[in-house]
Amino acid sequence: MRCACNGCARNAGGDHPFAVTEAQFHRFSAHFSPPAPDEGFTLVHHPVDG
């Protein structure tokens, strides 16, 4: 899960005043779903660097 990994990296950097736990991330992200085609969003997928 790329988003969770980004949060872990941000937490490890210590530059952000709020550190999100994995449990908080999953609790928060449970409220989101991908946009449906009829919402008109243009999704751009970027390759993950090794």
How many extended strands?
A: 0
- Count of helical segments? 2
Poorly predicted segments: none
Helix content: 40-55%
Q: Indicate how many domains the architecture comprises.
A: 1
Q: Beta-strand percentage?
A: under 5%
What sequence of helices (H) and strands (E) makes up the elements?
A: HH
The description of the largest β-sheet is: none
Gyration radius from CA atoms, angstroms: 14 Å
Distance between the termini: 14 Å
Shape designation: extended
Average of pLDDT:
79
Secondary-structure content class = mainly alpha
Descriptive notes:
With 50 residues, this protein is mostly helical. The chain has one domain (2-39). The protein is 40% helix and 0% strand. It is built from two helices and no strands. It has helices spanning 2-13, 22-29. The longest helix is centred in the N-terminal third of the chain and has 12 residues, at 2-13. The two termini are 14 Å apart.
